[in-house]
Amino acid sequence: MAGWSATDIPDQTGRTAVVTGANSGIGYVTARELARRGARVVLACRSEARGTAAVERLVGEVPGAEVEFVRLDLGDLASVRQFAATYEQAHRQLDLLINNAGVMALPRGRTVDGFETQFGVNHLGHFALTGLLLPRLLGTAGARVVTVSSGMHAVSNIDITDLNSERRYGRWTAYARSKTANLLFTHELARRLATIGSDVVAAAAHPGYAATNLQTAGAKAEGRRAAESFMRVGNRVFAQSADAGALPTLYAATAPDVRPDSFTGPALLGWRGSPATSWRARWAVDDRAAERLWEESERLTGVVYEGLKR
């Protein structure tokens, strides 16, 4: 794993990948590098304008790349269902599902379906998407689901009695809880896949501190110019590039030795550097919490993972 880079990605010819939030940042880099190695890549993005522009940019950087844009709004379960239906009509296989899209430290808000925005987009949207695409994943030999979490998960465990932060809301606490939910989802998905003897690998990754627009979005949405400027300075001075930040995701998606329920991040203190096994808070691998979150997620989204019942 030491020194692993994008040049080490195995040939992906004949494989199909879905990357959420692929119009910018580490999602775009992930899609580009998979396409560069021969994968057929679906860019699943909320904005049609940005998604179409990303396809054009990617083809310009990787001539001959086989890529397409399909609209996906993870904050709207109807959109998630429409995406899954569209994908199943067009593709017989799904080798890689990269649950990358996310929002960070936003002011209190609600998704179309009434969920707290960060929990709804970062966890519930991806939970529903994975469940709806499960038949394609189970039907594809060697498929993988990689969910992008964050070192920030260590800030807070989930509160199973207040998943939507009704009692109290803090933008960073809500973000941390959504990232813990990503890890608990991976933990329980890996366990359930193993129970049925599936070779689908569920793994997690995080980019460390990578310079993307994720850091500035919350402050920009609230018009907090000083905070937005502070984040931009941090991106320039301390962060690694989006290209470097995408490496843990690419490793988890393609390296031959990736184990189920693994967590890959940057080697240097989880901050930057080449991919390495990353530390997880004890609550992120709690079996009972993972099971309860799964049950609540099925109830809230209405997406039941048939064939993966406990």
UniProtKB/TrEMBL annotation:
Gene3D superfamilies: NAD(P)-binding Rossmann-like Domain (3.40.50.720). Residues 15-175 form the Ketoreductase domain. It comes from Streptomyces bluensis. NCBIfam families: PRK06197.1. Belongs to the short-chain dehydrogenases/reductases (SDR) family. Keywords: Oxidoreductase. The keyword Lipoprotein does not apply. The keyword Oxidoreductase applies. This is Oxidoreductase. InterPro entries: KR_dom (IPR057326), NAD(P)-bd_dom_sf (IPR036291), SDR_fam (IPR002347). It comes from the Bacteria. The lineage of its organism: Bacteria, Bacillati, Actinomycetota, Actinomycetes, Kitasatosporales.
